[in-house]
Backbone:
């Protein structure tokens, strides 16, 4: 064998020997591996190995574990390995490595099929428990909300106004622009297809129904869930991490009326108007598509739309938005309140708030659509 | 490790001016001073987190700012424990300790597990390996942070206020642990603290900073500074801190 880093072997010995000199450092792990690879056969054939630490003052953990693995392999193959003249620090490192030698294998065993199945079961159970907690949270918020309505002087109007501005006023541009764009696309696509059958004059009715019944309220809700639901979760979650929520509790504040109801109240007030705006923007987009791309006169578009829509179509979308507001404010606040731990928990809560809000908004929309079929004149079978 | 004529600060504000000192291999150096004196700023300069306006931070005869490789080489040989332990909350304690081993070595999963557990054992936390950092106490978080810092057998261990937020008993245990690592492994230790008990318990040498002086106003052993410093600010620091500690106890 030959010199590798601080390793040295003298061929004149009968038994292969490794002399370790100085400190065998982390950076010498690569050469050590090459050294082992090169002389593995030779050592195996001789049936024994002596490792002499006489001139050594220490060894780093990384090369030590590599050397330790080599000793294990040799011993399994029946090779006698003797460590000589090792200083206390080297001995203690090898002892410690021997103590935790099988931990890697134990860890692998733990990640078995059974654990994967258990993880699925446990996730399902946690989800069910979360829905139960969310429902309880919703009732508590409604309780706090009713209390505030009965004592309006206790309403924190300043906070309500702040959230109205954040969640409503500042959402106007994005809600208007996206719905307008969607109206243009929908009007153009629908009108283009209908023109094949000479039925483009029905496009305003189709667009009006689509926008006012579904797309306007839904897109507004998705945007508010993405903007405000996530913001609520992040805000309350960060307060949890910084123990601000606990501070409010010990000061005697009702955390629901302080943290949750102002948000819900604000959303309840702004959501219907955002939906109205979404509807108007979408219809305006359709009007633009009709007049610019399909040659549909604006008067025709408006008169056809007027014949198709009734006030309930607009009002229904606004009423649905009240349900969405309750869902978004509660899910966002609930996820924030659930945060325990550090920064990553806040991120997870924010993501969960958006995903669950959108899921529940769509679920609520499906249920409300079934109801709408029965209450709107001209729809029930 | 050497600091030569270091000048630095935040924005336009000068915090450190013409700071020079060296840390010898195997010694424990405590950087002390009142709040706002620039201890943490100096630590950040030592760790290469902030570039000095002037002067050099030299490790193994190379200025750490001379090239990205020099900085990387130095950081491979350093271990840092932060005030809070700074463990990643989405990983378990053992996964935190495995992080540097996975990043910087080509060890197999089994070898990494063996080394990581042995490091946790050194700080007495092998039984808490699978716990989340959020489930263990502040003292344990710091010890786990220490195990992570020791994963690659650093030549120099840096501690930023290791006693902050700990009770005196836990703090004393941590001091013992630092001392024992220093003695058994010969690891050099640089520690930023204002805890007098820690300073006296573990430091070989003390460097004292002062905000008005923008730098070092005293250096020596803790006892020398306490008993025979000619500088009234040094005496005041030790007297005031000692009085406060006396009151607490």
Residues:
């Amino acid at each position: 064998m030959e010199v590798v880093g601080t390793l040295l072997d003298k061929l004149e010995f009968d038994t292969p020997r490794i002399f370790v000199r100085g400190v065998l450092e982390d950076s010498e792990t690569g050469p050590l591996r090459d050294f082992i690879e090169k002389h593995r056969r030779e050592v195996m054939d001789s049936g024994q190995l002596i490792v002499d630490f006489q001139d050594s003052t220490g060894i780093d953990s990384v090369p030590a574990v590599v050397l330790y693995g080599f000793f294990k392999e040799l011993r399994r193959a029946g090779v006698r390995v003797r460590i000589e003249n090792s200083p206390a620090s080297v001995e203690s490192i090898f002892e410690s490595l021997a103590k935790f030698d099988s931990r890697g294998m134990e860890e692998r065993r733990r990640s078995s099929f059974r654990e994967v199945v258990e993880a699925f079961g446990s996730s399902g159970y946690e989800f069910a428990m979360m829905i139960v907690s969310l429902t309880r949270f919703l009732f508590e918020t409604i309780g706090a909300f009713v209390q505030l309505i009965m004592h309006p002087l206790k309403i924190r109007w300043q906070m309500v106004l702040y959230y109205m501005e954040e969640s409503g006023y500042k959402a106007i541009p994005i809600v208007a622009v996206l719905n307008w764009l969607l109206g243009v696309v929908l009007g153009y696509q629908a009108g283009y297809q209908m023109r094949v059958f000479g039925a483009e004059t029905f496009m305003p009715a189709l667009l009006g129904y689509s926008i006012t019944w579904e797309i306007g309220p839904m897109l507004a809700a998705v945007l508010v869930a993405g903007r405000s639901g996530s913001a609520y979760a992040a805000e309350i979650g960060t307060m949890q991490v910084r123990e601000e929520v606990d501070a409010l509790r010990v000061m005697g504040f009702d955390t629901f009326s302080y943290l949750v109801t102002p948000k819900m109240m604000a959303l309840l007030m702004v959501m219907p108007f955002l939906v109205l705006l979404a509807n108007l923007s979408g219809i305006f987009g359709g009007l633009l598509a009709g007049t610019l791309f399909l040659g549909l006169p604006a008067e025709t578009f408006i008169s056809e739309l007027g014949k198709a829509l009734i006030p309930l179509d607009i009002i229904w979308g606004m009423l649905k938005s009240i349900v969405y507001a309750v869902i978004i404010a509660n899910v966002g606040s609930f996820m924030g309140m659930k945060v325990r731990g550090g920064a990553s928990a806040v991120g997870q809560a924010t993501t969960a708030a958006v995903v669950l809000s959108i899921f529940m908004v769509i679920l609520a929309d499906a249920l409300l659509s079934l109801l709408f079929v029965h209450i709107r004149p001209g729809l029930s079978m | 490790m050497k600091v030569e004529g270091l000048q630095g600060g935040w924005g336009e504000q000068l915090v450190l001016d013409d700071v020079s000192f060296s840390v010898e291999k195997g010694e424990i150096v405590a950087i002390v001073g009142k709040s706002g004196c620039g201890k943490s700023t100096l630590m950040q300069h030592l760790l290469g987190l902030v570039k000095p306006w002037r002067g050099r931070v030299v490790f193994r005869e190379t200025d750490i700012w001379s090239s990205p490789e020099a900085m990387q080489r130095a950081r491979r040989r350093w271990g840092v424990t932060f005030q809070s332990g700074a463990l990643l909350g989405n990983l378990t304690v053992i996964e935190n300790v495995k992080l540097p081993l996975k990043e910087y070595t080509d060890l197999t999963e089994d070898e990494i597990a063996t080394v990581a557990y042995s490091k946790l054992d050194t700080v007495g936390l092998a039984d808490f390996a699978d716990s989340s950092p959020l489930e263990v106490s502040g003292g344990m978080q710091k010890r786990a942070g220490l195990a992570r810092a020791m994963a690659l057998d650093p030549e120099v261990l840096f501690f930023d206020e290791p006693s902050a937020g700990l009770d005196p008993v836990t703090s004393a245990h941590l001091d013992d642990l630092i001392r024992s690592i220093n003695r058994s492994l010969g690891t050099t230790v640089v520690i930023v603290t204002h805890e007098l008990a820690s300073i006296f318990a573990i430091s070989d040498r003390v460097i004292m900073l002062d905000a008005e002086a923008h730098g070092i106003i005293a250096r020596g052993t803790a006892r020398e500074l306490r008993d025979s410093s000619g500088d009234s600010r040094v005496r005041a620091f030790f007297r005031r801190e000692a009085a406060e500690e006396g009151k607490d106890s």
Q: What stands out?
A: Residues 2-110 of chain A form a domain with the Transcription Regulator spoIIAA fold (CATH 3.30.750.24). Residues 203-241 of chain A form the longest helix (39 residues).
